User: Which sequence fits this backbone?
């Protein structure tokens, strides 16, 4: 099985071309354990305006802060838009902050050199890292040849940026329940079945039911 051929005139392909940083895995083969975004944007034409607005906001966040939202999968599920993503950080541009536990890690590193008890020290350091993660502080740390390197890493307060990203994605997903996925109308829109649940306006729902009845006959 192979990927669906790309249509350069399709707004989905044009949108992914416009924002390559967001759709980094679009050329991966999803059947070869690649990114699921390789399947493309699996939504109807009616949600084009939602995705265009969302990508514009995410791109602006990336330009302002250096924190990029990389799409992992975009599809319709239970009648609503689903935008799954990962976070990619540009270390040269993102604002770095010092966490409260940096001096403690520095002391632990010196203590390990002095008393030569790496196992005990690493366990304590892991506990500090766990507390840091729970506080919403992200750290970038490379693993050395001899295990965990206790040299104080780069600290990034992700709460400042994740609020903007999560808010933009949540707004787009909630908005999809009020816009017809087929035509983009906002009149008489309902999210219902039978069978596969869709968010459609009255006109598109009648056309969908007629097409389904025709296939059944």
Assistant:
């Amino acid at each position: 099985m192979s990927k669906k051929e790309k249509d350069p005139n399709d707004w989905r392909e044009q949108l992914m071309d416009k924002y390559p940083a967001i759709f980094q895995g679009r050329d991966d083969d999803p059947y070869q354990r690649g990114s699921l975004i390789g399947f493309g944007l699996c939504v109807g034409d009616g949600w084009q305006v939602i995705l265009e607005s969302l990508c514009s906001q995410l791109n602006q966040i990336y330009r302002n802060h250096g924190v990029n939202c990389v799409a992992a999968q975009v599809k319709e599920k239970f009648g609503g838009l689903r935008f799954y993503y990962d976070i990619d950080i540009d270390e040269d541009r993102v604002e770095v902050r010092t966490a409260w536990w940096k001096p403690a890690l520095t002391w632990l590193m010196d203590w390990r050199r002095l008393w030569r008890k790496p196992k005990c020290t690493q366990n304590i350091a892991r506990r500090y890292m766990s507390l840091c993660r729970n506080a919403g502080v992200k750290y970038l740390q490379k693993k050395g040849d001899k295990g965990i390197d206790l040299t104080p890493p780069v600290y990034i307060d992700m709460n400042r940026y994740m609020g903007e990203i999560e808010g933009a994605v949540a707004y787009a997903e909630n908005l999809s329940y009020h816009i017809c996925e087929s035509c983009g109308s906002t009149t008489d829109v309902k999210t219902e079945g039978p069978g596969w649940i869709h968010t459609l306006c009255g006109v598109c729902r009648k056309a969908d039911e007629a097409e389904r009845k025709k296939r059944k006959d």
User: Anything to note?
Assistant: DSSP finds six helices and nine strands in the chain. Residues 111-115, 139-154 have pLDDT under 50 and may be disordered.
